[in-house]
Design brief:
5-stranded mixed sheet; 1 helix; elongated; mainly beta
């Protein structure tokens, strides 16, 4: 007999199994019934108070309680301020490597867990969706989300794809976040046929495409940087090859660059002397020398035209906040050399990555200031982000 918690009979089953898929979310009881004769019409009756059969009968001494739980959603994971589901961090540099994970799931019973690339749990519960990988070991990690009913039972060494993760039901996120936590290694560079010196004829109307190859480089982000003979940056290559036809006569160098964070070095700066990224970076051990000679009618093409086809980067937003810790008002100062928007978006998050406040501030090239009231915030750690187009910077502060 299937009853509700008041022992009112919902259905009678002669088989040894009950399908709950069509039943609403509720708590149920399953009783056994031994009887002679035939079962009476007992649907809707109190099983403990009516004649259950035409002959003798006895209910089981106990019942099985079944909680029909609501559907759960593992959701899809993404990284705040990051496109795609892969991010790169640099271990051991003393700088916080915060990865803020978001999920589309709205389930209240939800947890994140960190595994290795074999899906073996290494950190069962990071405690929050704002995860600092600075203290994590070198390697590649995965972040999964888990929606669950009942009590979650996940521990170090479990395989999230094979182990029982809850005493009830659970669902993993539809994807995972990959965190590559490696020190950048620039390796060595050459053309795809192994050359490190190349001569091309420019200005003859024929493409001069030079394909690049890197060796012994790390798994971090990687790009190629073109400089002049004095190592002054001309631009960054979009991909693994470059067409030098429009570059004009001259000599340039092609370096490999492995990095984490965001590229910040700009055209005209010396690649051997400036910070190339706002996080960790490493130039290749060597460079490819590309000698460009004029051909055909000796068409004079300005190097500026060639540079337009390269990727150039703007200096990042630089922000500072004071006082820190703060009691009531926080002063935010941000410097931005080339704003791409007339307004900068300022976003305030709690340590769990939940957006608390969003505001915009009219922005000018150079120095900008903003006073933010935080007296309504509870004591704790918060994140303050400034975003102007693709330029982003984030700081942590404490509220007392």
């Amino acid at each position: 007999l299937l009853t509700d918690t008041n022992n009112v009979v919902i259905s009678v089953h002669e088989s040894d199994g009950i399908d709950f898929r069509a039943l609403p979310v509720e708590t149920y009881r399953i009783w056994g019934l031994s009887f002679t004769g035939t079962i009476n019409d007992i649907i809707g009756s109190d099983a403990a108070a009516v004649e259950l059969a035409s002959g003798c009968f006895e209910l089981s001494a106990n019942f099985i309680e079944v909680f029909r739980a609501p559907a759960i959603d593992g959701g899809t994971l993404s990284i705040l301020f990051n496109e795609g589901d892969v991010t790169y961090t640099c271990p051991g540099d003393g700088i916080s490597d915060l990865v803020i994970v978001e999920t589309t799931s709205e389930d209240l019973n939800y947890r994140f867990t960190i595994t290795d690339t074999n899906n073996i749990v290494r950190i069962p519960n990071p405690g929050t969706n704002v995860i600092n990988f600075e203290g994590a070991g070198v390697g590649t990690w995965r972040i999964y989300g888990i929606a669950f009913n009942g009590d979650l039972d996940i521990g170090f060494g479990d395989n999230v794809l094979e182990s029982t993760l809850s005493d009830s039901c659970w669902v993993l996120s539809s994807n995972f976040i990959t965190v590559v936590n490696e020190v950048p290694e620039g390796g060595s560079v050459s053309t795809t046929d192994g050359a490190t010196e190349v001569t091309v004829t420019v200005g003859d109307g024929i493409d001069d495409i030079v394909p690049f190859f890197r060796e012994n480089a790390g798994p971090s982000l990687y790009t190629y940087v073109i400089t002049d003979e004095n190592n002054e940056i001309i631009g960054y290559v979009d991909g693994d090859s470059q067409n030098f036809e429009a570059a004009g006569e001259g000599i340039c160098r092609v370096w490999g660059l492995s990095y984490t964070g965001t590229l910040i070095a700009q055209a005209g700066e010396n690649a051997a002397e400036v910070a190339l990224s706002d996080d960790c970076f490493d130039l290749s051990d060597n460079f490819i020398t590309v000698t460009r000679v004029a051909g055909g009618a000796g068409l004079a093409i300005q190097a500026e035209q060639f540079q337009e086809n390269l990727i150039n980067v703007d200096a990042p937003i630089e922000i500072s906040i004071s006082p820190n810790p703060v009691v009531s008002e926080l002063k935010m100062v941000f410097e931005i050399q080339h704003p791409t928007r007339e307004e900068t978006e300022v976003l305030l998050y709690n340590i769990n990555g939940q957006l608390i406040k969003s505001m915009t501030h009219a922005t000018f090239a150079g120095h900008n200031e903003l006073i933010i009231s935080v007296k309504h915030l509870a004591s704790g750690i918060y994140l303050l982000a400034a975003r102007n187009g693709n330029q982003l910077q984030m700081k942590r502060f404490a509220k007392n």
